[in-house]
Design brief:
Elements (H helix, E strand, L loop, with lengths): L2 H17 L4 H20 L7 H8 L4 H17 L1
């Protein structure tokens, strides 16, 4: 992706952190909850179904994996 995207993303996170009184942990936990909820609704699973079982059955990455891969990609592009 373009470097301007990451600098814009970084600026948004910094502004949320500073002005919005929101911690980065809160942002990621809300993302993970929304990701899990969307997968359950989109594929028609019940609310009480196991998220681990659903992810294994569908062979899709967890929200943690998505966040980790994004951080690694972001860090590797900063170093270059």
């Amino acid at each position: 992706m373009k470097s301007w995207f990451y600098s814009g993303l970084f600026a948004c996170v910094c502004m949320m952190w500073h002005f919005g009184n929101i911690t980065l942990v809160t942002v990621f936990s809300k993302f993970m909850a929304a990701y899990n909820k969307c997968i359950k609704k989109f594929f028609g699973y019940a609310r009480s179904d196991s998220m681990s079982g659903i992810l294994l059955e569908l062979i899709v990455p967890t929200a943690d994996t998505i966040v980790h891969n994004s951080r690694v990609l972001f860090a590797s592009q900063i170093v270059q």
